[in-house]
Design a protein that fits this description.
By secondary structure, the protein is of the alpha/beta class. The protein is built from 3 helices and 11 strands, in the order αββββββαββββαβ. It has helices spanning 3-36, 127-132, 184-193, and strands at residues 63-66, 76-79, 84-88, 93-98, 101-102, 110-119, 151-155, 161-163, 174-176, 180-181, 199-203. The strands form 2 sheets. Strands 1-4-3-2-11-6-7-8-10 form a 9-stranded mixed β-sheet, with helices on one face. It is globular.
């Protein structure tokens, strides 16, 4: 075979291998989307990936950290931008948790108070959510399949809650309709630390 023909065949072979590799990666991404809800290439939801978010499924450990700032012990500080919740301790420290926050258009800020605590809470989607998602159930009893998870802390007279989640891969992401999501084990830990009347400061 002439040298030019050999070179052409070689180039075509490399191009075919690269195309096969790309198709395989695309298929893997689509399969992962279908099984865990992630969208690694930003192709399926029609929007770019949030580069400030933790990778889907990445563990965000609960830990005690330094926390200056003058807030009274027992206060909850939610940092929406950081995707972290702080429970203020004495001595300039706080317990830091990873959280999921409101997606674009649903983020909010302000000061609220915990008005109710619930163990394995039932869930009734609010009317505004049902208008957006008429496929949702009108009521769900508490349990492992309930989107509020193991515990819920109700914030004032608002529709928002700090609650557990049966979707741990969403922690560190901006995915909710405004509620603050936590790992079930983390919301159980926080639930034991707080009381009705606890002040909650949500920072945008």
């Amino acid at each position: 075979m002439p040298v030019r023909s050999k070179l052409t065949a070689r180039i075509l072979g490399l191009a075919a291998a690269a195309l096969l590799s790309s198709l395989t990666a695309f298929g893997s991404a689509e399969a992962r989307l279908r099984t865990d809800g992630s969208d690694p290439f930003g192709l399926f939801f029609g929007e770019e990936q949030d580069e400030t978010a933790a990778p889907a499924g990445a563990a965000i450990p609960r830990e005690i950290v330094g926390f200056p700032g003058g807030h009274a012990p027992g206060t909850i500080i939610v940092s929406t931008a950081e995707r972290r919740l702080y429970f203020v301790l004495s001595g300039g420290q706080a317990v830091r948790y990873g959280i999921g926050v409101g997606r674009p258009g649903f983020a909010w800020g302000g000061v609220q108070t915990i008005t109710r605590k619930a163990v394995w809470p039932a869930w009734t989607p609010p009317a505004a959510m049902l208008r957006r998602r008429p496929d949702l159930p009108r009521h769900m009893v508490g349990g492992e399949g309930n989107p509020l998870g193991a515990r819920a802390l109700y914030l004032g007279g608002s529709l928002y809650r700090i609650h557990g989640s049966n979707e741990p891969h969403t922690i560190g992401q901006a995915v909710s309709s405004g509620c603050i999501r936590m790992l079930n084990e983390d919301v159980v830990d926080l639930y034991e630390r707080v009381r009705v009347g606890t002040r909650v400061v949500v920072l945008r």
